[in-house]
Each structure stands twice: as C-alpha cells, then as structure tokens.
Amino acid sequence: MRQELPYRNFKGDDKITEEDMINYNGSSGNILEGDLEYPKELHVANDHPLAPEVINVKANTLSEKQVETFKLINGNKEPKDEKTKS
Predict the structure, then answer these.
(1) Which domain does 35 fall in, by range?
(2) 5 in a structural domain
C-alpha cells in the first residue's frame, strides 16, 4: 500500500511506550520523533536526503536539464512556480 505522508493536524500522546509501538496493529498511524544521524561519507555518496521535506520549488531554481525534462513531460510548456498540495 502506498499513500502520502501526513504533514499537519497531528495529535500527540506522551503515554505511548516503545512496547506499544512494537506490538502496534491498529489502523491509524504513528509518527516518531528522534534525532537523525548518519555517517558523513553518506552525505556525498547518496543523492537522496535522509529526511526530505515538502517545499515549493521556484522555477528559476531548476537546472537546464530539469527544465528540459519538464518540457518533455508537459508538452513543451515552461515550468512555473506552483504551490504544493495542501
């Protein structure tokens, strides 16, 4: 199953224990907060970020290759600034 990650309207519950998380089998999801650390050598070697975020990408920040790919996919239309899904 694949679905978008939630990004707002979270409800906190400080009473959930590690054992609750391990034995969880419900239909609602859980989000964990923690410090993310990984070896410095992976920062350069890996093109994918450890914790990506939802941001608005401005058309003027795209590389020539990204603009070319966008046009190829979108019938030669120029990329423009758009808002992310809410």
Answers:
(1) 18-73
(2) no
Is the distance from CB of 23 to CB of 17 less than 8 angstroms?
Answer: no
**Is the separation of the CB atoms in 19 and 30 below 8 Å?**
no
Per-residue pLDDT tens digits for 52-66: 777 788 899 899 999
Backbone dihedral region for residue 64 (phi beyond 0: left; psi -120 to 50: alpha; all else: beta)? alpha
Q: How many domains does the chain have?
A: 1
- Residues of 15-26 as b/e, b for ≥16 C-beta within 10 angstroms? eeeeeeeeeeee
Quick check: pTM over 0.85?
Answer: no
Token pair recorded at residue 25: 């089998």
